[in-house]
Amino acid sequence: MRALGKHLLVLILQKIVEMDGGNHSDDSEFLLLGLTESPQQQRVLFWMFLSMYLVTVVGNMLIILAIGFDSHLHTPMYFFLASLSFTDLVFVTNTIPKMLVNLQSQNKAISYAGCLTQLYFLVSLVALDNLILAVMAYDRYVAICRPLHYTTAMSPKLCILLLTLCWVLSVLYGLTHTLLMTSVTFCRSRKIHYIFCEMYVLLRLACSNTQVNHTVLIGTGCFIFLTPFGFMIISYVCIVKAILQIPSASNKYKAFSTCASHLAVVSLFYGTLCMVYLKPLHSYSMKDSVATVMYAVVTPMMNPFIYSLRNKDMHRALGRLLRKPFMKLT
Fold first, then answer.
1. Which of 69, 168, 286, 314 has most Cβ atoms within 10 angstroms of its Cβ?
2. What count of other Cβ atoms lies within 10 Å of the Cβ of residue 254?
């Protein structure tokens, strides 16, 4: 019975990723070999990643539904939080189902088109996560440093405009690097010792000159990642100055607690990204797989817990959301 259930689960996952075209083996394919080739370790990884995926999906869906159904949470901060949860939801669905299929299948191939599709969503959504975090930092800056102007400064129209700008920039960022990757010629050996099609890994497989890719990667990376990060640092310097000027200790704690969750998520996000990308391309190795798992799987899973752990508004909203089905039954 257990084997049948496991087989059905793999079939469902294969349906999710069948667009990747991983059923044919030819020169236009890559092989995603994953973290290990040991069958015992692959079984452990399968159940571990499946559990993490389900927790991530359920956690982020609950955040989105709680914010959507609770009118008390229809504020700029929670609007951006719901957008962040949606981004994380799409992000893990782009990579983990294919990874789970590969862990249970002898055929670990992914088509060239499927690999580029995965790369596009990966690059775009990481950039989108980063930009949304920067906008959330601005929201906290206005709320603490300019509280009397918060309602007018963070109007619904501006919030939608900021989110639209984040989406446009991230889509352009993803398209730029994906289109540049189409001009790269790959060597005969297309074995990827990784869990998904990642930018650095693909560039290491290239036989052609990738100088343009590297130059654009550095230039756009500085704009998309370092600029928002610098903006977040400036925002929090201003926030800390404003908090220190508050005379009451309890009000200081209350003001800081509204930023604590965001700071934790930013630290986790940038910490894991730095572990992977702040190093020369030639030194990129299997040791970076742990850090990749952290930002690709662990960070999206932890975000709902971080934002709801000590947030009383989220506790109440989640409680009301989960009680609704039972109230209808009674």
1. 314
2. 12
